[in-house]
Amino acid sequence: MKCRECDRELEEGAFRIVDNVPVCLMCLCGDPPAFAVLPIGVVSAVDGPGGGLLEIWLHPGMTRFMRDLSEETGLTVIWIAHQPQTLHTTLVRGWDQKDAGLFATRSPARLNPICVTDVDLISVTDNILLVRGLDALPGTPVIDIKPSLASLKNSRPSSNPSS
Known about the structure:
Keywords: S-adenosyl-L-methionine. The chain is mainly beta.
């Protein structure tokens, strides 16, 4: 198979399907340096009727970073849309039905399928976070969590939110 834009032979993992045609990563991104993103946990379904609840099971090695986490009311969860999907340059947005470019949507089908969702933190038990409002599927890798900006504004005196 060849790249539809530059006619290079495609290597496994070095291309994406965009609007139903193969495009190599060189045409999409240039020649960026590689880097690693490590998962800190995984999304899990809640036993019984969930009511919009999901669990985030943090890897046991992450518990050292959880001090005071249970005091937060909201979190920003950064996760990877790990199920492969075809990229489209335009999509119909779910909230207003407008045809928009990919970067103007919240679609998980992205070149770098990094997704960000603000959630309500319901409880923390050991390394398990119970959250409401996470639009990820069970089995989804979580790559970071942090207090949401809304949680910071509601619970702290005015200060530097980046620390």
